[in-house]
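Marked as duplicate of an earlier ticket. Keeping the data here for the record.
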Amino acid sequence: MTISLKGKHILSGKQFSKAEIERVLEVGEQFREELKEKPSLDLMKGYILGTLFFEPSTRTRLSFESAMERLGGSVIGFSEASTSSTAKGETLQDTILTVCQYVDVIAMRHPQIGSADLAAEVATVPILNGGDGAGQHPTQALLDMLTIKSEKGALDGLTVALVGDLKHGRTVHALVELLKHYRTRLLFVAPSLLQMPSEISASLREYGITIEETADLSGALRQADVVYMTRIQRERFADPTQYDALKNAFILDRALVDQAKPGLTILHPLPRVNEIATDVDDFGGAAYFRQVKNGMYARMALIALVTGRI
């Protein structure tokens, strides 16, 4: 039976079955192959994507927009809250109800945890969560999975080290919910104040996933098939002195990479600040800019699937 995501909201990594993950990756790979032959498709001609970005974004917003354009559709929206009517006091729910009158699917980023769920409660078109504060970022997790599969050839049985701000990192919160379907061993590398939320770790262990929490980046690199670096997020700290104390906790440079397990793949959701040194960029396993491009293919797949065009 073909897996259908038609009409579904994409809100959290938790919502996906393994079969649904596989379906998204399959369609993303299909689009990647098709775009090798021509610059765009006609699949979404006449359809409109609304991009509602209440929080700054480069890769997520532009990849959603390029995804819809490559599919042959159109895009309307805004890139900062100050240009929307929320600046006049309009509620998020009223903004969503309004935009639904114009578009066929919405991609949204918002600083409030749970905002995507609030939007989905009133939306009459599918909501694609492009990040809700320190909550979830499921479309990033899917492009990460597409990248891991592309780089490693398979998803099962890998050791994945997730490094940096695991407490506030919506990318890692979503990614572990997908990785748990693939017998993955997880290494959580973070300062004690920024470790993965205990409820997420407990849920993963209940699912049967092996987790090791550590602050030893070098040791983790000797075990990992994939390392997923994240930045320490200044915007998530109420106390700037605490940010300053932690911002350089983990820096991946070429010397560390050269001591790592052979065949290491390096990912990062970007933007980076200084947690990956530029001398790593020419390392063969440095996949973070290939990861960026996979974001377009994964989001093409989601747009086509939730609108029922494929």
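See parent ticket for discussion. The chain has a mean pLDDT of 93.
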